[in-house]
Amino acid sequence: MYVTDRNGRKYHIPTQEETKRIREGIALDPDSRELTDEEMAELRPLAELKRSPGRPQAEVTKERVTIRLSPEVTAYFRATGKGWQTRMDEVLKAYVDARR
Length: 100
Prior knowledge:
- The chain is mainly alpha-helical and 100 residues long.
- Helices cover 43% and strands 6% of the residues.
- It has four helices and two strands.
- It has a two-stranded antiparallel sheet with strand order 1-2.
- The longest helix has 15 residues, at 84-98.
């Protein structure tokens, strides 16, 4: 059986027979096991998270904007590697600070 979430993703929900076969497979595999009730209680359900897992939220968040830049400017910063947008932000902040 499949269910669809509000984003259109489909998830397979195993039938009782499939669940039984899965558990039998787990029991036969010495490298896997089902978690105990105590271990399950230690897990933090996603519903309890304030935001999705991943990078911790910054104290000061940046504003998302769309701007048009000349190709030579973006090519220069992209050529500096990963983090080029942060470096571009630092250059713009230095410009603002110099004019205050």
